[in-house]
Amino acid sequence: MAKKKEALKLMLVEDDEVTRSTIKKALTLQGFEILFDTASVKTAIENVKLYNPDVAVLDYNLGKGPNGIDLAKKIRQSNPGIGIVLLTAFLNPTQIEEKILQLPPGSKYLVKHSVTKIETLVNVINEAARFQAS
Amino acid sequence: MTMFRVSNPFKGLGLIPLDFLLIPLGIFFFEVSVLISDVVRHEKEAHAHDYLAHLIHFILLYTFIYLIRKLLGLLKIENLRISALVSLGVFFGCFSELAFHFLFDLLNTHHQRGLALSIRTIFFLGTIWFPIAVIISSKFRTIPIFIREFEHDLLINARIKLRESKKNALAEQEIEQDIIERLRSQTSELARRISFSDQKLAESNVIRIQELLRVNSLRSLSAELESRGNKRTSFSSISQSFRVINIFIRQLHTFIKISLKTEKIPTSIVCLIFLLGIIPSMLNTLPFGRSLLAIAIIAVLAIAITNFPDFLSGRKKPINVRLRIISYFLLCYLPLISNVVSQVIFPYPGGHTPFLITVVNFPVLFAIELAIAQALVPIFKGTVSQLAYVPSEAILNLKLKKIHEELEARLSHQWAVYIHGNMLTRFATTSLRMQQALENNDSESFNKLRTSLIDLLQNPTAEFHTEVLKLSDELSTRIDPWIGILEVELKLEDSLKDLRNERVQDIGDVIEEILSNSVRHGGSTKIEVEISKSDSNTIKIYAIDNPTKTPNFQGSNPGLGTKIFNLVSDGRWKLQHNQGETIFTCFISVNG
């Protein structure tokens, strides 16, 4: 469990409501502060400026429209220090490599089924937060 | 006599553009035909000197015509009247005959030319050969432009025809069915194994289900489908060339067949082609008086044969293709018949034309010339647009294969997104929630999750198909998610807002691709999209953006976006870069 002094402020963007609420609940239990969660790219971009979170946890597949990488690039533009974690359902290494190359520097990705063990996601979020520190 | 009607092929020509494009080719054929008729006339094989004389003669004629063209260019003469053109042809003929006499004497060849033969040749070259070669050349340059435009329209037509065909609908069903079967085989096995698992909430049971939900095979299926969408097929340049030639010949054949049913080669042109084929050899093999008489008789016969289909079926009635083919067939063998008959009635030593020429050479060449003329008639008359753009089977098969690739790419991508975006996400969430249920000792939640999971696995396609929206709503679902990343200004014609048919989702897919390409490939921040009716059955999409880098997604190896554009618009789309803007235009049929 993350220590209280390290409580990071997160934003969560996931188009599936059930998944979003499940991850939100799990991360809150792990001591993270979820500043906002949304399925909307527009809301995410507006709120990121308002709340200035430490780390953005983004789903790769956001349904119709932009994907998590498009959003990651945009929020890194407005908040250059923000850490980024991309959740993806892919497992094929070549597909992941192709997509990771397009991510902003310092971004982390996680295959969704690893989230079954919430500690894995916690570790990746903490790693992504170090981008801000560096 | 109303039966014989020969239209004037030079009528309305006025000033003729001076184009010598086909003259070198004409000189070559002229040289070869003179050589052959000389060999026939002298009844012995040509020697090396004879060949050399003809080779030098060919080079001299070519040089002469090149210099004439340069001189006319310097004098800024671009057009000539037919009388001036004939004079130039006679001048060219005089040079040709003088060159023959000079070379034959110089090289002491077997072949010699008398004054009478030279005069006849000059007359033929000046009044017929040269003007016709220039007139055809002046029209000939428009043919490649026509072929390109025709090919473009033809391919679009092939796509439209295929899109509306049952064959295509079946192919689409087959592709989707194959994907669904593969998906079902994976999920039904998973459902079976989860159904057999213990319903009791226990750590071992949760771990077992979580292990099952990792299902790498389903991820592999999703990855494979995704890669199909980006699959790029390429052909070697040699096989590509063979394909192009093969398709061109087959399409030409189809075009000629259609043209034969709808357009007649003017009688004058048929007779002219026929006479041009036989006059040189008649002039060379018969005495002048006899050759003139023979030409006159054979010309009257040719005109009669060419006109007999109209005489039998009536001029204004639809073209009788069978009668027309019979008349062309008779013309093919008229030289053979006339030569045999004339030799029986008025025998002349050396007047017999070899059977190789009358039975094989002439009919084959004449048939080829008629076929070319048949293809050229609608082009020169400008009536191609009235002809149906009927694609050949070769083009249809090629396009069908291409459309299947595009369909497969599009459907595979949609299913891949569905599998990893919906199903695998649901698996991950279910795993996590089962873990939470275990930690909270919540049996009820665990059982609900387990039942819901089995339902999904037993019916994995239930959430794939979405309802068809009206166009304005469909566009909102595509454009709204981009707000914040891309500023989209949409102009949608009022009459289209409530459109609701099977093409609405296609239009949505095109808009989605335009927007994502604009951001991902062009780095744009602003785009204007205009959707309007270009006619009662066609929608025009026009988009203009401000890219920061030049997008390149219309190469020889098309990606998914290009495939979707081709598929949806039947190939009627283009991308232009102009002064820092990228302009996309696309036309979509909405009637089918």
What distinguishing features does this structure have?
heterodimer; A: alpha/beta; five-stranded parallel β-sheet; 5 helices; globular; B: 592 residues; alpha+beta; two-stranded antiparallel ribbon; 18 helices; elongated
Q: Could you outline the blueprint of secondary structure elements for this entry?
A:
The complex is a heterodimer of chains A (134) and B (592).
Chain A: E1 9-13, H1 17-29, E2 33-38, H2 41-51, E3 55-59, H3 68-78, E4 83-88, H4 93-102, E5 108-111, H5 118-133
Parallel strand pairs in A: 1-2, 1-3, 3-4, 4-5
Helix pairs in contact in A: 2-3
Chain B: E1 16-17, H1 23-42, H2 48-74, E2 79-80, H3 82-107, H4 115-140, H5 142-163, H6 166-196, H7 203-213, H8 216-229, H9 237-262, H10 267-285, H11 288-313, H12 321-345, H13 355-381, H14 393-439, H15 443-458, H16 471-479, E3 487-492, H17 504-520, E4 526-535, E5 538-545, H18 560-569, E6 573-578, E7 581-589
Parallel strand pairs in B: 3-4
Antiparallel strand pairs in B: 1-2, 4-5, 5-7, 6-7
Helix pairs in contact in B: 1-2, 1-10, 2-3, 3-4, 4-10, 5-14, 6-14, 6-15, 7-14, 8-14, 9-13, 10-11, 10-13, 11-12, 12-13, 14-15, 14-18, 16-17, 17-18
